[in-house]
Automatic annotation (TrEMBL), chain A:
It comes from Demequina capsici. It comes from the Bacteria. This is Transketolase. Its cofactor is thiamine diphosphate. GO terms for molecular function: magnesium ion binding.
Automatic annotation (TrEMBL), chain B:
It comes from Demequina capsici. The lineage of its organism: Bacteria, Bacillati, Actinomycetota, Actinomycetes, Micrococcales. This is Transketolase C-terminal domain-containing protein. Pfam families: Transket_pyr, Transketolase_C. Residues 10-175 form the Transketolase-like pyrimidine-binding domain. Belongs to the transketolase family.
Amino acid sequence: MTVEEDLVPEVHVEDVPKDVFSVIGRVPEGAPREEAIAFLRDAARAVRKRDIQMVSAAGLGHIGGEYSVIDILVTLYLHSLRMGPELLGDPERDRFILSKGHAAAALYTTLAAAGFIDPDDLSTFMQPLSQLNGHPARTKIAAVEASTGPLGHGLPIAVGTAIAGKIDGSARRTFVVTGDGELQEGSNWEAMMTAGNHGLANLCVIVDRNRLQQGAKVEDTNDLEPLPDKLRAFGMEVVELTGHDHGALMDAFAQVPAASGKPTAIIAHTVKGNPISFMSNNVAWHHKVPTPEQVAQAIEELEQS
Amino acid sequence: MTATVEKKLHDCRDAWVETLVELGEADPRIVAVVNDSVGSSKLAPFQSAFPERLVNVGIAEQDMVGVGAGLANGGKIPFVSAASCFLTARAMEQVKVDAAYSQHHMVLVGQSPGMAYGELGPTHHSIEDLAWLRILPGLTVIVPADPEETRQAVRWAAQHDGPVFIRVSRMGVPDVSPAGYEFAPGKAVTLRDGSDVTLVACGTVVGRALEAADLLASQGVSARVLNMPTLNPIDHEAILAAAAQTKGIVTVEEALTSGLGGAVAELVSERHPTRVRRLGVTTFAPTGTAEWLLDHFGMSPQAIAASAAELVSS
């Protein structure tokens, strides 16, 4: 197989079932914890199904890193963020920034589930003139707070947003997701220093710790460890959890702002490609596009998950 | 020869900080973001007036521009101020993505640009900034020539809902703006009319272009002088009129000639081809004071006049 064939796989959009996604909305107000977790699990399953269809139809995307971050995004938008379509433009809304902008399809699908985007528009992902760029653009989608794509941009922007909130004495919070490989960009450490020194308790940085970057394991490329110690040394309150555990994520997000007055860093241990058998923890799936057969298999595995 | 340029020279940073304090008093959304450059940005008066509204991120320019974008997201109007050489070169991707592409209402203030740090050498010269920034879609690029234009540019940027770059020099400059001048983005200022040749200048060298026009007048050459404070968008009308009505255009800038000169040459080559001579910096500079370096690169009033005279007679 030539390289070109590998990059542009044959995709038969008509083979992909289209009935697996509809608007889901937020976890009902006051729902008991177990009910909320079950709701988020169902939502994340639907978001994953739609996401893989989008990537397959577009013939482009970053499915592995999308599947590692979807549980985090779904928990934020459907449960923890004080932010909804009715709060767009409200100065007091919580902010969320996806610094790993290549996981755009996961963000768009989650935004559709939360009612920010018309689910029908998801089929335009990366098509000419679509608002759904390969990387999120703030000028195109009202709910997107920052244009991202090149790595290392989201955290400095989140720090600025958090400083604005602190100046205003506001209760609004800023959440940002970075990849773990992304932390190799020095701008993050500049921003982390600023966050720690300013005591930005209203800031929460979530590291999607899937331990794989585009070409290899993070540890074999430019290792981050000891990551918790580094984050603590920069003045952060460090929480480690499983990034696919909706209950743990809900609990951690509820602890922001931290009582210590420090910014929160959540190291979310995740699995790239989770929970699909042939994608999980497989470096080949950074931006590999699934065949229709693989889409069907992934959807079947999701239904059984 | 009668010099018509007033010789009292000003540091435009004084006008910049006075205006920022004035804006800060009127609007609590105004904040300043710096990279350990409170002193060189002359921001001490702003810091004493509004200590909680000055964010010093330290020596971290990528963070600085990102923090500016985040402050804009949080409802502030950030003025991100740093030496132009570091603000642009070190944070160029943040300038592109976080400011220009994102269309945040934020103001990037490039301090002491061009050859202002003459003796410190090319690492500290900001000669590339105009060429880099004028091509970014959606970023307004302003190069004020004197204190009045600096004041007006800063006021305009504070109310313009989009990203702006303003170049503020520490080099001594004369007052060049006419009485009652009102800055308009994308509009050239005709400082002197003329029919033989047009001198188009921006920033610190506008005074030198005016002196050159005096020298040309004494030789019987009628020179039009345009101050071009905005490089993006640039004033097509004024440039095309100069191309049509005079025998050639000489551009003068304290930067690589791909800045103002590049913009003028691109426009006339497509719309009204005419002879263009671009004066400015052409290579990494030798050591010297800023004034000496401008002369060295052919921007003394005499050298500008000679270039224009040669263009007219050739």
